[in-house]
Specification:
The complex is a heterodimer of chains A (118) and B (107). By secondary structure, chain A is mostly beta strands. Helix content of chain A is 0%, strand content 52%. Chain A has no helices and eleven strands. In chain A, strands 2, 4, 5, 6, 9, 10 and 11 form a seven-stranded mixed beta sheet that branches. A four-stranded antiparallel beta sheet of chain A has the order 1-3-8-7, with no helix packed on it. In chain B, the strands form two sheets. In chain B, strands 2, 4, 5, 6, 9, 10 and 11 form a seven-stranded mixed beta sheet that branches. A four-stranded antiparallel beta sheet of chain B has the order 1-3-8-7, with no helix packed on it. Chain B is globular. The N and C termini of chain B lie far apart (35 Å). Classes of the chains: A mainly beta (118), B mainly beta (107). The interface between A and B is medium-sized, with 21 and 22 residues.
């Protein structure tokens, strides 16, 4: 059974960079696309971007200028960096696996709350 | 970007009754539409893809229909574990977008 676990600081100061890592267990990170999705408190879901195990990426245009995704296949991990954060970036951040055949999300991490505040 | 609009925002239903949730796309997404269920403090769970195909392990009381811009998720007889928030998501092109959600609460 594939499991995903997000890790990283729960508090980030405004204008700084949010950094999270997702560790995949129970399966290989290879041959799949992986995504980050966020959910502001009490609100809906926003797709941030995806990364293929080979390193190719695509980002939501609304965040593209501030987002960088990377992958480390040796550690079975992929990561998110979001720069110049503001309070509007406060959210639960989920990592998820994209299904093999279509851009849906079949396995999710439990989510981690990141608060942007001084 | 395709905008997904869900209605109603909140649906109050008694256990055992039918619930009908709607999702509308701002332009055609063909049948490239999925539904997720999210319970408090949990990640979303994939219920339906291809507008009408149940994901693995999803009970038959969940059904999806529609194509183009209008979609419906029906829960035929609500069980206690079905009270949750439901999101639709299109995957017709990038960026992927979700609807704002429908909360199904106990009447």
């Amino acid at each position: 059974q594939v499991q995903l676990q997000e890790s990283g600081p729960g508090l980030v100061k405004p204008s700084e960079t949010l950094s999270l890592t997702c560790t995949v267990s129970g399966g290989s990170i290879s041959s799949f696309y992986w995504s980050w999705i966020r959910q502001p408190p009490g609100k809906g879901l926003e797709w941030i971007g995806y990364i293929y195990y080979s390193g190719s990426t695509d980002y939501n245009p609304s965040l593209k200028s501030r987002v960088t995704l990377s992958v480390d296949t040796s550690k079975n991990q992929f990561s998110l960096k979001l720069s110049s954060v503001t309070a509007a970036d406060t959210a639960v951040y989920y990592c998820a696996r994209v299904t093999y055949t279509m851009p849906l999300f079949d396995y999710w991490g439990q989510g981690t709350l990141v608060t942007v505040s001084s | 970007e395709i905008v997904m609009t869900q209605s109603p925002a909140t649906l109050s239903v008694s256990p055992g009754e039918r619930a009908t949730l709607s999702c509308r796309a701002s332009q055609s997404v063909s049948s490239n539409l999925a539904w997720y269920q999210q319970k408090p403090g949990q990640a979303p769970r994939l219920l339906i893809f291809g507008a009408s195909t149940r994901a693995t392990g999803i009970p038959a009381r969940f059904s999806g229909s529609g194509s183009g811009t209008e979609f419906t998720l029906t829960i035929s007889s609500l069980q206690s574990e079905d009270f949750a928030v439901y999101y639709c998501q299109h995957y017709n092109n990038w960026p992927l977008t979700f609807g704002g959600g429908t909360k199904v609460e106990i009447k």
